[in-house]
Specification:
Radius of gyration: 30 Å
Structural class: mainly beta
Number of strands: 37
Amino acid sequence: MRNFDKKIITASAALISAFYFGQTDSASSKTIDDVVILGSRGSGRSLTETPVPVDIINISKILRQSPVNNISQALNYVVPSFSSTSHTVNDGTDFVDPALLRGLGPDQVLVLLNGKRRYQSSLINVTLTPGRGSVGTDLNAIPAFALDKIEVLRDGASAQYGSDAIAGVVNLGLKRRLGLSGQVFLGGYASPVANNFSGGVDGQTISADLNYGARIGEKGFINVTGSVQYRDPYSRAGVRQGNIYNAYNAINYRALQNGINIDGLYKNITNTSNTQQIINTVKQYASQVDYFSQDFKDQISGANSISALQGLLGKDFTDQELNYRGLERKDFSLRAGQSKLQSAQLFFNSEIPVNEEWKVYSFGGYSYRLGNAGGFYRLPNTERNINAVTPNGYLPQIEANVNDYSLAAGIKGKWNGWNVDLSNTFGKNAFNFGVVNTFNASLIDRSPRTFEAGGSEFLQNTLNLDFSKKYDVLHGLNVAFGGEYRYENYKVNAGNENSYVSYDIFGRVVTAATPDNEKVTDFFGAVRPAGSQVFPGFSPDNAVSGSRNSIAAYADVEIEPTDWWLLEGAIRFENYSDFGSTFNYKLATNVKLAKNFNWRGAVSTGFRAPSLAQIYYSSTSTLIQQGQTTQVGTFRNNSEAAQALGIPKLKQETSQSYSTGITWKIPALSLVFTADAYLIKIKDRVVLTDLFFRPSKINGPDDQVLQSAFDLARASAANFFANAVDSQTKGLDITVSQNTRISEGISLENNLGLNLNQTKRVGDIHASPKLVSQINNYFSEPNRVYFEEAVPRIKATLANTLKFSALTVALRNSYFGKVTDADVLDTNFDGVTESREHFVLNDRIVTDLSVGYDFNKNISATIGSNNIFNILPAKSPDISSLTADNQFVYSRQVSQYGIGGRFVFARVEFKF
C-alpha cells in the first residue's frame, strides 16, 4: 500500500511536469496577486511583496473540493506549519482540538475574526496531549461555511497585535457576498478498522449550512450563516485483555438472578452485624457456579470468615464467566476515537454606510455544541462498579455543553484625512461538564446515573481605537497608531455536591473525622471512590472568579524609500493589571533584488500574557490519611501552597523572532515560489509541572525543608503552572504555487508546501530552591516530548486540481513526519528502559481524492475520500501500560492526522 501510495505521488509530480513544461505560447498565464491585509495597516500588498510570509486560503474552494468541514481540519491539511488533530479519552480535549503553529503552543498563536481579537476557550488543556498546560482559541466554534478566506501570518507580530502573536496570527474573514448559498455534507469512515476493527462504516457525519447576504441601502450589506451538524462517534479499540470477572462476581451474579443482592447486605464489609448471613449467602450461591471445581467449592464451603472468603474469591474466572453470560471480551472495550457531536451555529457580518465618509459595522455569532466522549471502562471486578445495577460494568461518559457568544460593533471612516476605526468586541465561552452512565460509587445503588460536574467560563471585552493615514512621501508612507483596552474574566463553577464528595455508610459527607469502618467499601474492603466516575466535579475549593484588565498603545510605520525597497516598523506598549508592563518592537523589510525576485526579513520581540486559566485553575482532591486531611492535585499559581513551595507568580513569556526569506514570481509560468527561514527564542515559557511529592523520609536538609513546605501547604502531592523553561524554535517554510491554462476550459492548479521545524528546550530549568531535589518534575521527560517531538518536524502537502469544463478533480498528498509518544517504556523489549526510550510513530503519506461536477452555475456536487488508501498510524507496542490492556491500539497521546482511517464523503452545494 505504501508503494502504491508513492506511485500516486510520482504520478502527481509527473502530471505537474507534463502540464508545466507542455504549455504553448498561446496559453495565457495567470498572475497570482492576492492582496494581503494581515500584518499591515496600510492598503495591502501582494503575497510576494509582504515583508513577512502570509498564506491566503480560499476556504470556500477548500470546502468545495475536500472532505473537511471545519476550520482546524482545513488548516491542518493546507498549511504545513499548522497542526491540529482530535484526541480520545482525554476529558475536555476530546471536544476542543489543540491547534499549533510552527510547533509552538495553542496559546502562542493569535486568532482574529475580521481583524479583531478573538477570545480564547475557557478549557485549559491539562491532559496528555500536545499543548498540555495551554489555553487556545477554539477555531471550530465558527462555522467554516461562514468564512470567505483565511489569512495565516507566519511570523511574530506582538508589536502589531499584542499578546499571543509569537508563532503568528490567523485571521478569519467572514463572508460579505450577496445572495443565497448552502451545502449539505455527508460522510463517514469506511475502513477495515471501523467499529473496533470489525469493518463497515462508523463516525458518520451529516451537516447542513445556509448562507444569505442581502443589500442594505445602496452600499451596505448583511450576511448571515446558519450551520447544523451531527457527528457519530467512532472507535478503534482493541479486544480487551486482562481480568474482568472474579469468583465473587460469578457468585453475586447467580444471587442477583435469584433476586438477592449480596452487596446490599453490607455497606462497610468490616462493620456489619450480619457477617454470618453474608458468609452463608456466598456459600449458597457459590454452589451454583457450575465451572467452579469441586476443590474450589470445598475451599469456599470451609471458609468461616469474611477475610477467608476475600482470600479465595478474588481469583480470576473471566473466560468462564464470559461464556456463561454470553459475552465476549470486545464487549468491554472503551471508545478509542472521535467523540459524538451535535452543534448549531449562527453567525452574521454586516456593514451599513452612514454617509459617504463613515460606515457602521457589526459581526458575531452564537455557537452551541453538545459532545459526548467515553472514559475508561469500569470493570465488574473493581470497587468502582455497582454490580447490582451494572453486573457487567459500564462505560462512563463525559457530556460537554459548550456555548460561545461573540459580538463586535464599530464605526469607521475618514476624519481630516485619517482613517479612523472605533470598535468594541465582546466574546464569551462557557464549557460545562456533565457525566452520564456513571455512579458516585460511595452511594452504591442509591447513586444517580447522571451528574452536573461544573465547568468554566471565559469572558473578554476589547475596545479599540485605530488611526492610519497614507502620505505621498518618497514612494509611499503609511502611518498608523492606536490604543486598546481589554477586560478579561475567568470562572470555574462548582458542580453538584454528589459529583465530587464521598459519602459514608450513613449517607453523610466523609470528613477527616470519619473513621475507616464508616466508609463505604466493596466486598474486598476497598473504599469506594468519591465523586462521579470518569470526571469528578469541581468542588467549591476549585471554584474561582479572577479578572484583569490591560491597556495598550501602538505605532506602526511603513515607508517605501524607493520603488524597490519597503521598510516597516512597529512598537507597542502594554500594561496588565496583574503582572505589569511590556514593550515590544518589530522591524521588517522587503527588497526587490531583481524583477519579480524579492528578499524579505524581519526581527521582532513578542510576549504572551499568562492566561487567566493558568493563574486561577485548580483541580484538587482531599485525601484522608490517618485521620488527617491532605490535598493532591493542581493548585492555583497564586495559592498558599504555591507560595509555601516557592512557586513564583506567573509572568509574561517573552520572545525574540528572526526571519529571512525570498519570493520569486515567474509570470510567464504563473508560478510563485517562497522560502522563509525562522528562529524563535522564548523565555519563561509557562508549563504545567508534574506532581511534586512530600518526602516520606528525611534524608537530608533539603527533604526537611520540603517536608515542612508541604505541611504548610497542607498537601501531599501538588503540581503547578510555572514559568519553568526557555525554548528555541527554528525552521524553514517553502511554498510553490502554479496555475496553468492548458486550453479552453481546461486548467491545472498546483500547490506545494513544506515545513521543517524543530523546537528544543534551552538553558536550565527555572526551579524553586525548595524543589530542586525534584527538579525533573518541573519539566519531565513526557513534558519534553510534548514540547519537542509530539508534532511532526517535517510536514509537506502537494495539491493538484485539474478543472476540465464542468468537472473538477482534486488530488492532495500530505506527508507527516514522525512523532513520539510521551510514555517512557521499554519499547525494544531488551529488558532495559532508557531515560529517553519512547514509542515512535513513523512518517506517513496520506492521499485525498475528490471529483466534483458543476451541473450549472448554481449547483455542484463533489464526492471523494480523505486518506483514500486507509493509511493508519503505527500501532502501539504490546505494553499494557501503554495500551491499557490492548484498548489503545494507536497512541492516545499523539497523532499526526488521526486514527479513523479512510473517510468518504459527498457534498452538494448551491448558490444563487
